[in-house]
Every structure is written in C-alpha cells, then in structure tokens.
Request: fold
Amino acid sequence: MSRRRKHWGWGHEDEQPSAGELREAAAGLAAHLGFGSADVEAPAPVALDPPRVELPASLRGVATQDDHARAVHAHGSSYGDVVRAFRGRFPHAPDAVALPGSEDELLRVLAWCADARLAVTPYGGGTSVVGGVDPVRGSLEGAVSVDLSRLDRVLEVDGVSRAALIEAGAAGPRLEEQLSERGLTLRFFPQSFELSTLGGWIATRAAGHFATGPTHIDDLVESVRAVTVGGDVWESRRLPGSGAGPSPDRMLLGSEGTLAVVTRAWVRVRPRPRERRSASVTFPSFAAGCDAVREIVQSGLAPANCRLVSAREAALTFAGDADLLVLGFEDAGVAGFDAAVSCCEAYGGQVSEGGGGGSAAWRDAFLRAPYLRDTFVAMGVLSETFETAVTWDRLPGLVESVSGAVEEALGRAGSVTCRLTHAYPDGAAPYFTVLAPAERGEEEAQWGPIKADAGDAVLAAGGTITHHHAVGRDHRRWYDAQRPEPFAAAWRAAKATLDPDGLLNPGVLWGEA
Amino acid sequence: MSRRRKHWGWGHEDEQPSAGELREAAAGLAAHLGFGSADVEAPAPVALDPPRVELPASLRGVATQDDHARAVHAHGSSYGDVVRAFRGRFPHAPDAVALPGSEDELLRVLAWCADARLAVTPYGGGTSVVGGVDPVRGSLEGAVSVDLSRLDRVLEVDGVSRAALIEAGAAGPRLEEQLSERGLTLRFFPQSFELSTLGGWIATRAAGHFATGPTHIDDLVESVRAVTVGGDVWESRRLPGSGAGPSPDRMLLGSEGTLAVVTRAWVRVRPRPRERRSASVTFPSFAAGCDAVREIVQSGLAPANCRLVSAREAALTFAGDADLLVLGFEDAGVAGFDAAVSCCEAYGGQVSEGGGGGSAAWRDAFLRAPYLRDTFVAMGVLSETFETAVTWDRLPGLVESVSGAVEEALGRAGSVTCRLTHAYPDGAAPYFTVLAPAERGEEEAQWGPIKADAGDAVLAAGGTITHHHAVGRDHRRWYDAQRPEPFAAAWRAAKATLDPDGLLNPGVLWGEA
Reply:
C-alpha cells in the first residue's frame, strides 16, 4: 500500500477535504436534503487493544501488527462500519494483517493460522457492505486479515481467446491499467471499482458495469485458482464452457472466503468499446419506465447500461425531477439502439440522445457516492443502500412493500428511493437508497431495526436478500431462510472437509453470525 | 408410455423400417461410405435374469417388473448401449422400473429403495450417451430405474416474467406443445430433443439449440426443485439473478442424479421467433471458418445457429463438399446478420443467404442421426460421436491431435470428422463423429480403445472431457483427472451427507465406475 488508506470510510488519507471544505459541503447538502447539520464532527482517534497473538519471526516481512493497518482492516464499508470506525470503535480489529506477495507467502500465513488456531479473513479492497471482511475470531485464538493487494498483476494475456490471467488482489484501476496496455478491458465497473479486487468480486459474485447480459462476475470467469487452509490448490481448467459435472468455479463463486482463498483467475476480456450510443429517457412514472426496461430486455436487446432511476432519487442526486432511464449501447449492441428508443417511446418516454443532461449528472453522483457518505456521517445524515432481485411479475409489489416498510421504520423523517440497476429477461434488480437524519452517536441502534424490516419485506415479496452485495454476516438471518436446507447441509459438509477447524471467515455464510 | 419404446436403439417400435427398407438403406449407405454391408442383422431377443427383489404390494401401480420395460431402462443411447442391446446383452437390467405420477409417489419409491438398499437411477428419456442411466447396483441389493416421464406437465406460466414451471419428466415435444398453447417456447433443441427431458437436461447440463449465448440449460434455469433420497425437498427461489452465496441451482446442474432427483423447474421461456435470417457459407478451409466464427462471437454478434461443419463431415451427410457454416439469426439478433456475413467474407466465405442448400440438408441429417445409427449397427458400421470445448488458442491443436489419435486408433479404415457446435467469445465446442467398418459381434472391444485414445487426446490438448454429453460412467477416468481435487473432496462430502447409503446412481460422478 503505497498510499495510506483512511482508517474509516472511503478512499485514501491524501484526498480528504479540509475542515472548511467539509463544512461548506455539509451546509449545501443539509439545505438540499432538509436535514443534517453543517456542524460536522471529526473522527475519533484510533485506540486498539493490543494484539492477542505474537507474530512469528518468519512472517515479519509478510505481516504487520501496526495499529493503522489493523484499524483499516478491522471492517468493511457498510454504513455501520463507517460509523463505528468514525467513532473509534473497532470491535474486530485483527491481531495481524498479512500482506502476502506470492502464493507461497500466502501458504505460509495460512500454515501459521492453522498452527495457532487463528481465524483467516481474506481481504481484497475492504469494500464489503455486509460485514464480510471483519476479522471475527469466533471461538478461535485470534484473527488475521489476509490482504491480497500485493497480488495485483496481470500475469498472462491470451489475445486470441480474449482472456487474461489476473491475480486476485488486483483492484479495478490496476487491473484495467495493465489490460489497457494490450488494448483490452474487463469492463467490470462496480461502484466500488476504485478499491475492490478481482478476488473479492469472485468471492462475492459481484455485479458490475453491464446492466444486461454478463452482469455478474460469474459470467466473466473462465477458471479460478484458490488455496485451501490445508494448502491444497483448487484450480479449474481454462474452458469456455463445460458439462463435466457441477461447475467447480460456481462453488467458489459466492463462497465469500469460506472455502478457500482465491489467488488468481482467468477472466474473459474484450477490446475497449469503439462505438457507443446513449440516451437519457424521462418517463411519466417509474412503472412506465419498468415496463420499457422489461420490453427492452425481453426483446433480446442488450444495452450495456440500462439503469432506471426513480424521480425522487434523481432529484436527490441533482439529476432532474422525473423518472429517468440511463440507456447506453456499445459496439454490436448499438444495432439495437433505435429499437430500444422505440420501446421507451411506446411507454411515454421522452428520449434525449447523448450522454449529457440527466445521465451525466447521475453517473457523476454514482461514482462520488462512496466519498459522499463519509461527509454524511460527519454531518449527521444516515445513508445506506441495499438491493435485491425479483421476477418482473413481483417487482411492483416488492418495490411498494419494501419502500413502505422502510418508510414506516423511518417514521416521518428521511426518504427511501429506488432504482433498477440490472435487468434480466425474467426480472430486475431494484436498488434502494435510504437517507435520514441520523441520531448522532446512536447510528447503529437507529439503522438496525430499519435494515431488519427491509430484509423481512424483501424476502416476503419474493426477492433475494442480495443481488450483488453478498451475504457476509449482516445478511445471514435472511440467507439462512432463503437457501434450500438440503443445499445448506451439503455445503456445510463441504466446508467441514476443506476447513475442518473452521478458520476461514467464521460467521460468514456459516457458523455463529 | 402410450407408445412402446424400442428395447434397443432410438425411438418407438411403431416407426421401424421394414426388413426390405432396411436392406435398401444399408446398400445405399454402404456404397456412400465404402464400408458396411447390405447384409443386415436382426436384433437378438430379450432374455433377462429375473429381478433380484420383489416389488412391494403398495407400489404395484407405480412400478413394474415387466421384461420389456426392464430392457428399455437397462441402458442409455451410446454406441455401446445400442450394440449391447442389439445383441441381447443387458448387464444392468433394473430389478424394477418405477413410473411415479406425482412427487408423492416418487417419495414412496425412494423410501422403498432406502429400506431395501436398492440403487436409484433417475431416468428421463434414456438418451445418455455416457452410461449415465444404466441401473448399476454397485454393492447394493438391487437397482431401480426411476422413470420421470409421467411428470410431464407445464404447471404454471408467468407471461410477464416469461418463465414457466415444468415437471422434470417432460420431453422436448411435450414441453413445447404445452408452451406453444401460450405462444411461448423454451427453444432448447438438443439432438435428443424427441426423447430427452427437462430433468435430464438439468442433471447433465445439456446444451441445446443456441450456438451462442444461452447454450447450456444452466442459463435457462430460474429455480429447481428436487427431492433427496431421505425425502427432503431442495427448492430454490425463483430469481432472475442473485448474489446470495454459491448458487444452489449450480450444485444440482450437472449432478447427474447423484445428489437428488429433480422433479420440476422454473425455466426462462420466450415467444416463438418472428423474424429469422439465415445463410449457408462455404469456406476455403476449416481453419478459415473457425476464424470467421471466432470473429463473429467476439464481435458480440449472437447468432442462434452457428455450426461449422468440416468438408469431410459435410460430404458424409450429403451437405456438399466444402467446409460449411450454418448461420442463423433470430429476432433482435437479426440486426447482426450483415455484420456476420462481412466477417465470413473477410475469411473467404462464399455466402448463400436462406435456409436451403447445404444448411437444410445438414439439418435434416442432424435430426435423423439417432435413427440412422440403428441402421449402422445392423449393417456393421461403427458410429459414435464425442465432443469437448476448448479455448480458441488451443482449438486448432486440439482438432489436429484428437483427429490424429482417433485415425491412428482406427487404422486405415473409417474416418473421424469434426464440426463446431457451439461458440463462445473465448472458445468453441468441437464435436467429432467416427464412422468405421465394425468388427461385428466385437463392437465393444473395438470401440473401447479408440474412445480411450480420444479422451486422452482431448485432455492433453486442454479440452474438457465433455461439453454437453455429461460424465456418466464412461467419462469417469478423465473427469476424475480433470476436476480440482479439493472440489472433488468437497463434493464427496456433500454427497455423503445427502445420500449416506450411496443409493443415487453409483458409479456416476462418484464411487466405482
């Protein structure tokens, strides 16, 4: 880590606003929202309990027990994580942070953890918003955060098959920078792109740039290499497709660091897009926009971008005051642009071609959001998001009942808004944003019951507890209810075989949450 | 089963050629191939050992021990299966054939098998070409073939989300007939379409009609319901996408009846295509055709049909004497037709628009092939196919080395030909057809070493032992070598939990092959 990450919130220490800038931003935001305060708080200092275990001399160059590193690796990036760290609370600071620079060093770290009975928390960019990277030790002697960020190289590119072998710790910009030297791109741009890593995307079945087609990283993975805590290598063949038994890759995709530590993967890449056509479309209602999106994807059109933002959410992000569809096609997909525009018009859409206007404003807000939230925390604004996916027949009911449940939990203050981030022929992924006046100092206690009601409403309405934010510890209650019990039994047996001492991420997907 | 299936080979008893027709066909084929004989043999009579177990009175209406049913369910549809049954050899005739008409009846059958320690062989259409449906009992007391064909209804259609809930035993025509009443189609047309079933497709990760995009049934499955031998229900939520842990469906997809018996699934359907554009393209070489196909799929074009047939294979199937690409676009994909034609022309392709000519002849041959093989067996022609998938960079080498290995194993007689059946951005699925003079009466001994050399060559060249024919028992040796060992260990643990007595399909994917 050449630049120091902030020990709380998003980004690096060298890109923080000054106190004056922060106050000014807070005043503007408070005026816009109607709540929050220009009286911004400063983060509490870091004070951690000393490590519970001693680092072996042989690992001194591979791991650290430095307080800043321990604080950075003590949490992910959920609202609760940001608030806790802001207030100086680090309930799961790791006893050490390992930064292996090779698979061999990783194996030495894992061997130490096995010997000393330490929990192993694989860590990519620390962007989990579901409690997936907190070094919880469970019943073990301690916990080690295993940060893969030094494994960040593109090792090999197969230009003929358009695939690249990339190390798991490569974050979005680093990965794209190396691919771009070959004129290639993964084109996988989750909101966490700046910090999140290939290994993290695989472990959590992240969803990226494409609103249709290959939206989940699952679709871009050609083969995966991982190591178990016992030091065994799990490596699948590079194959474009196969029908040989259940897919080994699909067992690792979504395993959230509980079965093995992903070290590298072959992924499908493509040339940078040469042609694009985009439009902003405003609709008379969110429902009309949903119908248009449904018709677009069911017609077999494949927009790269197809995000429908509700009028209330557009207003909050300065993107106008109507229900807005951000629509973009790339390369071969461009042939479908006119047909998609016709779909929109059939549902009353007002089409404005080009990337400007509402679309550009919305995109800027999208990428700025993780930074903005730190300001929100300092100025007393509760700010969190959650997402799901649901079939089209159940979508209107889900949006209504989930929004209603959150509004009721919020009381009179604050708002919940919705957008569709991804669209499938048989359904879509609604994404909810909650903004409300925070109960300063009591933020965790305030958010907990709201999140609980939201999760209950999502499941009751036929959705999944997560479309692309993973399960971690925060979603366990609903995940346990959602997954088929025989599958859970099979998975637990697999887990017990690969990790008999239960070292990998206790509480994530399995065990006491 | 209202129509009686043949006890050997393909199709039903009421569609068999007369002896005269068969002789005439054999004479023509022998002249075309340069081997085989008009002196056709007749199938041996069926003589089975008596069942090893007695059917409980309570299951008399659900299961049968009739010799014809036992012979039909004793095997799948590989060349070895056809030859063995033709010669009156039924080494794995089941002790009973169950035909449950409901999930409840299925559970009663499974309970009997568990009580009496009988192997359970889930059976869809009996079209396995890899020894996947032989009722092998292993170390158990007997074996029961569990034929799902009475569970053949479309139970529910969600026209908004374009999804349908279909019972596992529905074969292609029955499933399409019910969907077509709603103007919908699954558009999943494997060569076995006439007899194979939805449950079989899911269990084996079958590949169907689409040469690009959603080629495997995996991509069309929204949720799966299955029952374990212990009677537990494994049912996933209907979801268009999810990031909640590893996919439960993907653990059943490809499980080949070893973890649970699939009873129904929600699948993604679509309206019948309204627009089509197709072409036959001849290329100066197979390599030039491969390059064109690669460029088409890497450009993001999505032909529904994109099968490249080598010149030798085209000649054998009366589809001309050049390397032939059968290219077809449907609905939204049609927008890419001209660009695909340009790709072909850039590699020397001679394009003839329309479905006639070589394309039509090839398609007819494709659908007739399973029937034709029965004639081949009777006339002393060895006829078998196998397939793989491989990344583009390795494709030319694989086709060369696999073809070479088979040619060497064949000696001077016979031929091996190749086509590409499915194409991905990062690779393709080559499909090989072997035709040779059979050593009559010794066919199994003749084919075994050829298949072994082919499998070894496929793996050595970087392919998978199967793209869409599954593993069964015949591919075990290569599958065991191919899958990552930690995955195998995890899978075995899952298997032991769901099926502790090892009743489900012993030898398939696990256990003694």
Notes: The first strand of chain B starts at residue 63 and ends at 64. Chain B touches chain A through 94 residues (CB under 8 Å).
